Amino acid sequence: MNPMQKAINAVGGRTTAANLLGISYVAVRKMEAKGSLPRTDYTGETNYAQTLASNSNGLITTDWLMDKANPKHHTVAA
């Protein structure tokens, strides 16, 4: 299970995550498939990690998700 799958499951699934984050179900599915947060969470434009952690009933933390779901760790070889 990748970190995004764990975070999404912790808040109750894709639909709940989409509602919490104010984004589409498809956008959540893409983050889950990539296993990483979008770049915007690391530039301060969004706070998805914080929102997911705050609604996870203590199953994940913001720091853990920011570390484990960093897109730099999930680059695809060409």
What is the end-to-end distance?
A: 23 Å
CATH topology: 434 Repressor (Amino-terminal Domain)
**SS summary, helix count:** 5
**Succession of helices and strands:** HHHHH
Shape: globular
Strand content: under 5%
- Arithmetic mean of pLDDT: 93
- State the helical fraction: 40-55%
Oligomer: single chain
| Name given to the CATH homologous superfamily | lambda repressor-like DNA-binding domains
| Main sheet characteristics | none
Number of domains: 1
Assign the structural class, choosing from mainly alpha, mainly beta, alpha/beta, alpha+beta, or little secondary structure: mainly alpha
Radius of gyration of CA atoms, rounded to a whole number = 11 Å
DSSP summary, beta strand count:
0
The low-pLDDT segments are none
CATH architectural designation: Orthogonal Bundle
Specify the CATH class.
Mainly Alpha
Account of the protein in words:
By secondary structure, the chain is mostly helical. The protein has one domain (3-74): Orthogonal Bundle (434 Repressor (Amino-terminal Domain)), CATH 1.10.260. It is 53% helix and 0% strand. It has 5 helices and no strands. The radius of gyration is 11 Å and the shape is globular. The N and C termini lie far apart (23 Å). InterPro entries: Lambda_DNA-bd_dom_sf. This is Regulatory protein.
